[in-house]
Write a structure and sequence with these properties.
By secondary structure, the chain is mostly helical. The chain contains 7 helices and no strands. The longest helix is centred in the last third of the chain and has 37 residues.
Length: about 180
């Protein structure tokens, strides 16, 4: 009988622990994310949607900006998943590479700007908790994660653009 009682207590204890964790999010990270999203929307409204659009067109012309600045700004200002709409400024042949670069940056940006990918913040939060428990600097980790992410998305953008061009050329030959 004790086995069943302990099993039932453990089962409900699992959900109690989940409820406690959920409430910690409601009093911790969720209000922060809402404030960040509100602030980003205010900045876009202050700058003006037309200026944001013009800047997107400018960035789309240069490979360095196309696969670094544009994905970072798209994630920062529009957050995941709305950030992919910035691809509207690109020629069709660049859209797969832009998507690849942007989706690859969803995790590295969360350390500095958690609102950009709120759904995945908990992955970073788990890593951050481990780093904090070890007594290491969380800010340094976030900055390094961000910088390495920039290098990775630039490389991925170039590689994907190259592959897309090859596949398009191959399809033209088959048509």
């Amino acid at each position: 009988m004790d086995f069943l009682s302990n099993l039932a207590s453990g089962f409900i204890g699992l959900f109690n622990a989940g409820g406690e964790q959920f409430m910690s999010y409601m009093t911790g990270i969720i209000p922060t994310l809402i404030c960040l999203i509100t602030a980003v929307n205010a900045v876009i409204a202050i700058i003006g949607q037309d200026k944001v659009n013009k800047f997107g067109v400018f960035c789309s012309k240069y490979i360095l900006l196309r696969y670094t600045v544009l994905p970072v700004l798209a994630l920062f200002f529009l957050a995941n998943p709305m950030c992919y709409t910035m691809g509207q400024f690109l020629e069709e042949r660049y859209k797969p590479a832009f998507y690849d670069a942007t989706v690859s940056f969803c995790h590295p940006i969360t350390g500095l700007f958690p609102h950009a990918n709120a759904g995945e913040y908990f992955v970073y939060g788990g890593i951050a908790a481990g780093i904090t428990d070890l007594g290491l600097d969380l800010g340094g980790l976030a900055v390094r994660y961000f910088l390495v992410g920039l290098v990775v998305i630039f490389i991925r953008g170039i590689a994907c653009e190259f592959l897309t061009a090859r596949f398009l050329k191959r399809n033209e030959g088959e048509a």
